[in-house]
Amino acid sequence: MRGKNVERLIRALLIVVVIGFLVWAFISGAFQFIMDNPDDLAYLLQQHLKLVGLSSLLAVIVAVPVGILVTRPRLKKYDWIAINVANIGQTVPSLAILALVMTYLGIGYFTAVFALWLYSLLPILRNTIAGIESINKSIIDAGQGMGMTGAQILWKLEIPNSLFAILAGIRTAIVINVGTAALAFLIGGGGLGDLIFTGISLYDTGIMLSGALPVTLLAITLDFVLGKLEKWIIPKGLQRNLESL
Q1: Largest CB tally within 10 Å, which of 30, 47, 137, 196?
Q2: CA max distance for the chain
Q3: By C-alpha distance, which of 92, 90, 91 is closest to 122?
Q4: Which of 139, 126, 38, 37 is nearest to 89 (CA)?
Q5: CA-based angle 196:177:162, to the nearest 5?
Q6: pLDDT digits (tens, 9 = 90+) for 1-18
Q7: Exposed, middle or buried: residue 232 (CB in 10 Å: 0-12, 13-18, 19+)?
Q8: pLDDT in tens, 85-109
Q9: Taking a C-beta distance cutoff of 8 angstroms, is the pair 121, 59 a contact?
Q10: How far is CA 10 from CA 87, 143, 203, in A?
Q11: Burial status of residue 63 (CB atoms within 10 A of its CB: 0-12, 13-18, 19 or more)
C-alpha cells in the first residue's frame, strides 16, 4: 500500500513537471514556431525516429543473443568481456562517444547510428543476463527432469521467465536513445537536435524548446506504448508473479 502511494506521488510530480514544461514552451513561443514550420518539424522528427529506430533495432539484434550466449554454461566465464565492452558505451559520456566515433567514421547519419547503438547496448545486455540468471533453479531442474533438451529449456523456460527483464532493458534503452539522439546533430546525423542547438546558438528559447518539446513527448509516448506492449507480450501468469514480488 505504501509502495502504491509513493508511485502515485511520483506520477503526480512527473505530471506537474510535464505541465510546467508545456507552459514554459507556450510562453517562450515554441508552439508558435512549430505551427509556423510544420514541414521542418515533420522532417526532423522523421530523421529522429529513423536514428532511434535503427540504432535500437541493431542493439536488440546484438545484445539479446549475446546476453543469452554468455549465460550458457560453456561461455559463462566470458560474460565479463561482453559486459565490459557494453560498459564502454554507457559509462563514457555520450558526447565523448560521438567524438570518438566521429574520429574514425567521419560525420553523418551512420556514424550517429553507430554511436547510439553502442550507447544502448548495456541496458539490454545487462537485463538479458540478469533476467536469465535470476530464474529459480528449481524450474530448470524440473525441465531437465522432464527430459527437455537445452534448446527446449531455453525457449520454453528461460526466455519466457526472463522476458520481463529483457523487455524492461529494451524499453530503457529506447527511451534513453530518444534523448541521446538529439546530440546526433553535432556530427551531421540530423534529428530534432537541429532545432535544439540552433536555438541555443541563437539564444532563442522558443526555437530550442520547439526541438526539446517533441523529444520529451516522444520519450514519454514510447515509454507508455512499450509499457503496454510488455503487458501484452508477457504471459499473464508471469505478470501476476512479478507484481506480487
Answers
A1: 30
A2: 68
A3: 90
A4: 126
A5: 160
A6: 566 777 788 888 888 888
A7: exposed
A8: 767 666 677 777 777 777 787 888 8
A9: yes
A10: 29, 41, 33
A11: buried
